[in-house]
Fold this protein.
Amino acid sequence: MHELRRSFAQAGLSFSAKLVPMLEEDPSHQTERRGCGYTQATRFLAEFINCPRSPDVATDLSLFADWSSMISEIEQLARRLIQHGWEAGWRRAAQAPAELLRGLESDGLSLLIGLDQKLSELAKHEHSFEARLLFSMIVDIIDGTRQALPVLAPMPVKPEIGSCSQAEEFFLEIAHGKIRRGGSVNLILDETGKPLLIEKMNLGESHSAMLLSPATVNQVTIPPGGLFALEHAESANAAAASESGLILSLADIQAARFLRLTTLAVPPEIRRRAFSAQMDAQVRLNMVSPLTTTLDDLRNSSARVLRSAA
């Protein structure tokens, strides 16, 4: 049993029937297009992440098998909590002042408070690096992060840009200074002027970007190595152009949709453990150094691009 599935089940939080075979690396998820179960699990979480963390819509709870039947009840309770002054609605109910909860006592409220307590306890468990990435996103889906990180405007409508498991091929090449003929690379800078996203154009699908530093979408923290689809603002105005593409600010990005985690999201030494069949495929397809390339290689490549525009 997958370590995360085991620890959540022991806490009385069994995962959705859709997520379980992904975590267990069912062969149906180890295909050329899907990559592997771990990759599919991050695609599955992306469906939740790309929706707002609404205080009175409780569909995020369908992550857990036993909560799906209670969503309507929880949403009714959420509206009452909001009326009583708890703006987060059903989220973080354990943190609401006791006097605010007076008169709202119910089985649903007890379950919500218990959910928060269980997530807090689970955070203390020892998990592998790759499991912690999933755990952090799951907790943020339920509670919403309050970390002070760059915020990416969400893209509610799914774009034509896909999340094919071969997207890494181009980013691995970019990390080693190779940009195929006809392609270009844009950098999106954060408020401090550091590269936050590196976007490929005319390399496979255009407007596909890799996250270089943590950022949030709909109050969920996405770690470096996250794959995004980007939409540029109509008013986007490149601050500069490099020899390989445009230099844009975060304000030039109209919307961003989280697609999945890439294999670069984990260190090389555990990549095969985390991404199993997908890593085997990258080696078989002769991608550029998939077992040794790091995000730092991509960051260094981005820094070179930025210097060339100075």
Observations:
- Residues 268-284 form the longest helix (17 residues).
- The mean pLDDT is 94.
